[in-house]
Design a protein that fits this description.
Layout lengths: L1 E2 L12 E5 L20 E9 L19 E3 L9 E10 L4 E9 L8 E5 L2 E3 L4 E7 L9 E7 L7 E7 L3 E5 L10 E9 L9 E8 L7 H21 L2 H19 L5 H19 L6 H18 L5 H20 L6 H13 L6 H18 L10 E5 L2 E9 L6 E4 L2 E4 L11 E9 L10 E3 L3 E8 L2 E3 L8 E6 L11 E6 L4 E3 L3 E5 L4 E6 L4 E7 L37 H11 L2 H12 L6 E5 L2 E8 L2 E8 L3 E8 L21 E3 L20
Parallel strand pairs: 8-14
Antiparallel strand pairs: 1-2, 2-4, 3-5, 5-6, 7-9, 9-12, 10-11, 10-13, 13-14, 15-16, 16-19, 17-18, 18-23, 19-21, 20-28, 21-22, 21-28, 23-27, 24-25, 24-28, 26-27, 29-30, 30-31, 31-32, 32-33
């Protein structure tokens, strides 16, 4: 069967989603060895009737052999009828097919966009743009406008879904190398969202005489204090967004090399405040939200990385509120809007407080989730890359989740044993950020950016932990990190607000990437796990208790030794070099000899005990120049678990390489990051 849009007239400006389903035929009369094949299907889509077009990557967001079919926007012809056919073939070769009919809405006929005047001064002259000749019976019609200052290579939205076909606004200054020309592109939509082909008009918006550097900043400031304030007082949200958008474009130019960073920030702050007040008053169209997000990104980028903490917090709060409003509209979030949000958030992620960076990163996660929320299994991933932040979202049937997933160099590789069952829709979401949002903690020090990976099953976050085979997480070596300076894979513990390393192993991948083999998914970085050094053994000439280094009861992670090595690994190493039971028995016996020092040998195992003022220090040397050591306070020895009434303790707290000279002194520091027990 096929399910699709339940409308009498479908807008060709939207993507068409057709969901296919196949169920196995009855098994009666089928040989028992063939019954399992009844649940295995291959699919093929085709166009039975209507305007033919190639079913390939240029027209589809899915494969024509996938269970679902997604046709890209503006591929279907307006005012046309189509019959799509899905053929399913089971594992025995038996076919079945069904069809689905789609009728597209006619789009408005393309007219012209007229401008009056055709030239003026940016930030002060009011230009009126009027759409004429656009005809469609499905009224009311609405107008959308975009502007380009680089000859049509890139556009910024200044107006969307305006209910009149005539609009008056200011424009930013044109660029001198473009002869101050601004290309204005307009479209008209009908009631059902079908959009006309674009019509363009070119106007000139000159700069005021001598408006450069600080003078240009002053011109933008004056426009913000007059034109933007007038728009705010009018109560017209659309006008506020449009004027703010023009000012944001100009501020981007003005902030570059003006030498007036403080004044640029003041103007940017004024624009953000005005937008925030206007957009908080009521419902806002999706287009206005996108334009506001682009404006926020422009003014944030204009202030540069040196903007104040106060401005960063204000801009971050505005974007967060705007994200909430966008999600509250129920329309989801378009990739264009998401890209604008990510631009602004990423531009503030470095140079501010750690708390702010974490809040910004949390908002990026929300955007990643919303831009991929409406994907269907098999559809092309949604990716966003802006200002050092990359996001990725892809949907698949649970049984099809396998292989590699990545955006840029951030991503993961799943082991062949990985399985999420045979039912449900899985969304795989990835974020990569060059700037590290999480701080250094007592337990770990990150040296790279972050790779964040989350799975959702049927819309609910799905926990991946303690997997039998590790997943490979790829982390680009940013911020000066290299594979010669990293020693550990870290993950951020959101509950404890610290870095940890359990379940992860660092592996050399190449000079550009760190590879972390982890049994769970969360936010990862490459860096160094900080584990307190073991207590060094006192020299024979010393008196009193041992030195101030941490002993076996460290405040670090109880499940690891130095460098994040699991305690079970340490025990396994000691056990593998000779009978550990012999060692334990020897140590317990030696502990009874007070105020004495002995060295004993059991084959290749050496046990050394030193006692100073009721404090016993035990060192066990194993082949390969590894030493396990611990200190035990004589006044608090518990009875041995073996029933020794006099009490005895044998503890392996950490592993360290022996001193280079093979002497009796215990090393007092962690091994180099390249040392692997």
């Amino acid at each position: 069967s096929i399910s699709g849009p339940v409308v009498t007239s479908f807008s060709p400006s939207s993507r068409l989603i057709l969901l296919g389903t196949a169920t196995p035929r009855p098994s009666s009369g089928v040989a028992s060895n063939l019954v399992p094949l009844l649940n295995i299907f291959t699919y093929q889509w085709s166009i039975e009737s209507g305007t033919q077009f190639a079913l390939d990557s240029t027209t589809l967001r899915t494969s024509p052999t996938a269970r679902n079919l997604v046709v890209r926007e503006n591929v279907l012809s307006p005012g046309s009828s189509y019959t799509f056919k899905l053929t399913a073939t089971d594992g025995t070769g038996v076919e079945s097919s069904t069809t689905f009919d789609v009728t597209t809405n006619t789009r408005p006929t393309t007219g012209v966009i007229a401008a009056s005047p055709t030239n003026g001064t940016g930030a002060s002259t009011k230009f009126t743009f009027t759409a004429t000749g656009f005809v469609d019976p499905d009224a009311p019609l609405s107008l959308s406008l975009e502007i380009s200052r680089d000859g049509g290579n890139s556009y910024t939205t200044i107006l969307t879904d305006y209910t009149s076909l005539s609009y008056t606004t200011i424009l930013p200054f044109g660029k001198q190398d473009e002869d101050f020309n601004i290309t204005v592109r307009g479209r008209v939509k009908d009631l059902y969202g079908a959009s006309s082909l674009p019509a363009t008009v070119v106007v000139q918006a000159f700069r005021p005489a001598n408006a450069s550097g600080a003078a240009l900043v002053e011109a933008v400031k004056n426009a913000a204090e007059s034109t933007l304030e007038q728009a705010r007082q009018s109560g017209d949200v659309t006008e506020v967004v449009s004027v703010a958008s023009a000012l944001g474009e100009m501020l981007t130019d003005a902030g570059s090399g003006s030498g007036s960073s403080g004044e640029v920030e003041n103007v940017a702050s004024n624009i953000v405040d005005t937008l925030d007040a206007a957009l908080s008053s009521g419902a806002v169209t999706e287009g206005a939200q996108q334009a506001a997000a682009e404006t926020a990104a422009n003014v944030i980028e204009a202030t540069g990385s040196g903007s104040s903490q106060e401005f960063k917090e204000k801009a971050a709060s505005f974007i967060s509120n705007l994200i909430d409003k966008t999600l509250g509209s129920g329309n989801g979030m378009s990739t264009d809007t998401g890209t604008a949000f990510v631009r602004g958030l990423a531009a503030m992620m470095s140079g501010g407080s750690s708390d702010l960076a974490q809040d910004l990163f949390a908002n990026v996660k929300s955007i990643r989730n919303q831009t991929s929320a409406n994907l269907v299994p098999g559809e092309d991933p949604v990716t966003i890359q802006a200002n050092g932040v990359s996001t990725y979202g892809a949907a698949a049937e649970a049984e099809d989740v396998q292989g590699n997933y990545s955006v840029g160099e951030y991503g993961m590789s799943l082991p062949t044993s990985f399985s999420l069952g045979t039912s449900g829709v899985i969304t795989v979401e990835i974020i990569g950020a060059e700037s590290q949002p999480y701080p250094e903690t007592d337990e770990g020090s990150p040296s790279t950016g972050v790779t964040s990976i989350t799975f959702y099953k049927d819309g609910v976050e799905y926990d991946i932990s303690n997997h039998s085979d590790p997943l490979t997480i790829f982390i680009p070596l940013t911020n000066g990190a290299s594979n010669t300076t990293l020693s550990s894979c870290l993950f951020w513990d959101e509950t404890e607000k610290t870095w940890r390393g359990e379940g992860c192993t660092y592996q050399l991948f190449n000079e550009y990437l760190a590879a972390c083999m982890c049994t769970h998914l969360t936010d990862f970085a490459g860096g160094t796990l900080v584990t307190p050094a073991p207590t060094p053994a006192p020299s024979p000439s010393s008196s009193g208790s041992s030195s101030s280094g941490s002993g076996s009861s460290s405040s670090g992670d109880p499940g690891t030794g130095t460098g994040g090595v699991p305690l079970v690994m340490i025990i396994a190493i000691v056990a593998s070099v000779a009978g550990v039971l012999i060692i334990v028995g020897s140590v317990v016996g030696v502990l009874k000899a007070k105020k004495k020092k002995k060295s004993m040998s059991r084959g290749a195992i050496k046990v050394r005990v030193e006692n100073q003022n009721e404090r016993d220090v035990v060192a066990v040397q194993a082949p390969g120049d590894f030493v396990a050591s611990t200190a035990i306070d004589g006044g608090s020895r518990p009875a041995s678990s073996a029933g020794n009434s006099e009490g005895g303790v044998a503890v392996v707290a950490s592993i360290e390489p022996m001193a280079a000279d093979g002497g009796s002194s215990m090393p007092s520091s962690r091994p180099s990051s390249s040392g692997k027990p």
